[in-house]
Amino acid sequence: MGEESDLCFRLLARGHEIRYVPGAVVEHLVDPARLHPRWFFQRAFWTGWSEAMNGLAHRRLRKVAGLLRWHYRLRAFRLPYRPRGEPEAARVRAECERREALGYLLGILRWAPVRGRLVQTEAAG
Question: Which phi and psi angles does 15 have, rounded to 5°?
Fold first, then answer.
């Protein structure tokens, strides 16, 4: 996950522009298994994880940590939601936000130490 974000970071770093085209149309074939809240919860976690990895690869650590503080902090501490019966859309969305926040936090904890070693190695070389 996060290939599009990584591509955008690389293009911007090379001086290219990224543009939003609101009229663009994309067709997706969706596997019915991806319509269950469990799939959305997993996807949200890995989205947060990928955002942390891409952020650490392309941005300063302060900016990556700032996103954790200002965007994700309140979401990470919500109570978990596990639907029983018919899921409630608002609660599924809130749980996705919570899982994305947790993925982001854990992604930072996992990848920040590696990022630091890579920066030191480049400086030494």
Answer: 90, 10
